[in-house]
Specification:
globular
């Protein structure tokens, strides 16, 4: 079932998505971060959104830190595109992964909507947490081999 709702977008599509993300953030998009998730109740504390942002950005405003970090994403950080099965009428989500300060791999899952139903740009951060399984190079379709 998971394969049915995921796909790998072309490099150009991912670059365009990242341009839209940066545009939305520069234009004051409403950033929504899901700090607490139901799935986190069944995870080790280290792998929750709340723990990860507190660990990585202890003395920063979460929205400012997330905005900065999202603007750093590159096509090389892209993993895949996922259909939101809970909200099928909403745009697809993109998954990215980055290594942070030698602390670990961070899994990032976001949705960007330009001019949403409320007339504003929105950026929804569903996931920003340490990866439960370490990243491997084959997870990133556009990452250059070292």
């Amino acid at each position: 079932m998971a394969d049915v709702c995921t796909r790998i977008e072309g490099r150009f599509e991912v670059e365009s998505y990242l341009q839209n993300l940066n545009y939305a953030l520069e234009q004051g998009a409403k950033l929504t971060f899901q700090a607490d998730r139901i799935v986190d109740q069944n995870r080790g504390l280290k792998y929750t959104n709340r723990f990860t942002v507190a660990d990585l950005f202890p003395d920063e405003d979460i929205n400012i830190a997330l905005k900065r970090e999202l603007q750093k994403l590159t096509v090389e950080d892209y993993i895949q595109t996922v259909k939101d099965l809970r909200f099928p009428n909403k745009s697809e989500m993109r998954e990215f992964g980055r290594a942070y300060n030698g602390k670990g791999d961070v899994y990032i899952k976001i949705r960007v909507d330009l001019l949403s139903e409320y007339g504003n740009h929105t950026v929804f951060v569903m996931s920003f947490h340490y990866a439960e399984i370490p990243f491997t190079p084959d997870m990133f379709p556009y990452r250059k081999e070292a």
